[in-house]
Model the fold of this input.
Amino acid sequence: MKKAKASPSHPLDALVRTERIPHIWCPGCGIGTAFSACLMALHTSGLDLDKTVMVSGIGCSGRAAGYTRLDSYHTTHGRAIPFATGMKLAKPELQVIVFSGDGDLFAIGGNHIIHAARRNIDLTVLCVNNLNYGMTGGQVAATTPTLAKTTTTPRGNPEQPFNLPLLVYAAGATYVARWTILHTRDLTQSVQEALHHKGFAFIEVLAPCPTGYGRRNKERPLDTLKLYQERTLIKNGANPAEAFLDFERGVVLGKFVEEQRPTCIEMYDRTCRLPDSAAG
Amino acid sequence: MKFWRTPLDLQDIHVSKGMVLILEDRCKGCGYCIAFCPRDVLHESTRFNAKGYHPPEVKNPDACVNCHYCEIICPDLAIFSVEIPPHPVNAGPSEDNGSTGS
Ligand SMILES: Cc1ncc(C[n+]2csc(CCOP(=O)(O)OP(=O)(O)O)c2C)c(N)n1
Ligand code: SF4
Ligand code: SF4
Ligand code: SF4
Ligand SMILES: [Mg+2]
Done:
């Protein structure tokens, strides 16, 4: 086996700002795998990539937009969803993908995401859930499992984490799935489905953060992947209420929800854009 | 390739064969590709890349079935596989157009 001498190009390089690679993500960080799955889904989606945009907030996961060779936007912390909502409303022909972290989307940005789901605005949202605020040094998040150690919960987290699929479903999301980076083929397929779904599509991706979370919970990157292999159960169509995030009891993965409901723009047009005669 | 029983259509089964390409300077040595390759094709090299990590190395080239799993699990866009032209398992001469049997 010979290694090609002139550096061969990776099949996804056309979609990556290769001049910025290697990226900043730590060794074993799962964001890169989730990012590749997203790019692979875009690559094979048949979508017009000149009309596809990626929006991220702030955080390690939020760096994704800056590595994509698409029109992409690195917005302020927690505001990826309102930014994306504005873009979609102004230019409905765009395919808008939000790629961001659990803290960005559900802590500081938590209010935005529930309302975007309620309105069924046509967005594809990928949330990299690494169970903590990776970028700022591993603080407790709204997704940190009970008793897990973080810099701000040195004796273990006394609180219960959000069940993200249940939260967005209750708020009104019409496509809801959860995978881990180990289930990268299923994840890629889900992203493809979500891209073609009309309405608010949400995919949670469980991913290791060895630097912020793993280190404090005695999980090396490969240990986390073993956990994803051994302590998960794929149950497509499962009630999102079963999707509590607790590796002791086992974590349910799959596509939980795929429903049709008029989108935000359809409802607005139907209700507020009166025909000329009536408007006069 | 080993079979637990010899398939009746052995002469028609083609296992796709792959070749792994490694972009060493992108690798951060996480070992995911090595641990999760279903055919145990890779191992950690003793070399250092420019950033001081040990990239994977192909130890068992004939075993690669071009499943691409190393490629899609890698967080660093540092490894991928390509198909090498298919040939029958039993090395018998045959015309084929790329069906896979794995
Ligand atoms: C308004 C504001 N508040 C706080 C911060 C600090 N900050 C940066 S990233 C981050 C959390 C990111 O967590 P998450 O979205 O889970 O991303 P990860 O790094 O884990 O991928 C925080 C609190 C900020 N940049 N801006
Ligand atoms: S701190 Fe955590 S989330 Fe951020 S790049 Fe490192 S491993 Fe990934
Ligand atoms: S393509 Fe599949 S069999 Fe070949 S090295 Fe990669 S993971 Fe292993
Ligand atoms: S998965 Fe990628 S980064 Fe990790 S060891 Fe393999 S080639 Fe290197
Ligand atoms: Mg996070």
In short: Chain A has one domain: 27-279.
